[in-house]
Design a protein that fits this description.
The chain is built from 3 helices and no strands. It is mostly helical. It has one domain. α1 runs antiparallel to α2 and α1 runs parallel beside α3. The radius of gyration is 25 Å and the shape is elongated.
Length: about 120
Amino acid sequence: MIRPAMIAWRDVTEKLLALTTGEFSEEQRDDMILSIEGFLDSRDKLQSHIAAPFTTEEEAFGKELVAMEQDVQLKLALFTKQIRGDISESQSKKDHMKNYINPYSNVARDGTFYDTKQ
């Protein structure tokens, strides 16, 4: 007999995998992040109900969950990498726009004479 918490963990993990596998637009990203956070919170609550001792059936089921967990970690890492890339791209565009508006704001001041005798 497998504990209901373990079955619920698997169901939430499958939903999380399905959510992170699909394509999304930038408009949907905020809703996706909220959904991911909700799934992770519900998994965190279920984790306290999953503790030793385990039956042999639960151990086999747990191995499947560990394999799913590795896939979830990979998908979430790719998702955060994509978000970080978009943030750095946005910052780069902002910097380029500032340089376009005022091209001489970042001119190096090499060769400036400082009178140290005063």
